[in-house]
Write a structure and sequence with these properties.
Blueprint lengths: L47 H9 L1 H18 L12 H11 L4 H15 L5 H10 L1 H18 L5
Helix pairs in contact: 1-2, 1-6, 2-3, 2-4, 2-6, 4-5, 4-6, 5-6
């Protein structure tokens, strides 16, 4: 019988990112570590309230999405008021929408959502989605953020 004369080696601990569950719908990750959206771009009617807000007042939906995402990133917790509505971001989005360009601001926020939740896609895809499907894009972003926010209900 032989014995091992060395001490066990330390192992690295699991990294836990602050925030909630970033894949609450348990979508499978591909070989590059990215996954698909939890809700399709055409499933915007699944959240009728956000869909109406995004269609009639996209500036408010944009501002709420942006501030909810920023709050999750900075504080690791959901925004206590569900995001700020009437902000400078909302005003800039409104002004740009007067010239048909409000969608341009959404590209950055959509890219941030994809990055946070490791969703596959590209800046070109973000641009096309924001341009051609502005309200649906806002709803899809909102629903992805909402999944993480809801996961905090189960944390104690």
């Amino acid at each position: 019988m032989s014995y091992v004369n060395n001490q066990p080696q330390a192992t690295t601990q699991m990294q836990v990112l602050p925030g909630g569950n970033r894949n609450a719908s348990n979508k499978s990750y591909g070989p590059n570590g990215e996954r698909g959206w939890s809700h399709g771009i055409c499933s915007c009617f699944g959240d009728c309230g956000t869909c109406c807000l995004s269609f009639w007042c996209p500036c408010i939906a944009y501002s709420q999405n942006k501030h909810r995402l920023e709050h999750l990133e900075q504080h690791g917790a959901p925004h206590p008021e569900g995001g700020e509505s009437c902000t400078g971001d909302c005003a800039i989005h409104t002004l740009l929408n007067c010239f048909g360009c409000g969608w341009v601001l959404q590209i950055g926020t959509r890219s941030d959502v994809r990055r946070r939740y490791r969703i596959r896609g590209s800046t070109c895809g973000d641009c096309c989605t924001a341009f051609w499907c502005q309200p649906c894009e806002l709803v899809q972003d909102s629903r992805e953020i909402e999944l993480e926010e809801k996961s905090f209900q189960y944390k104690q």
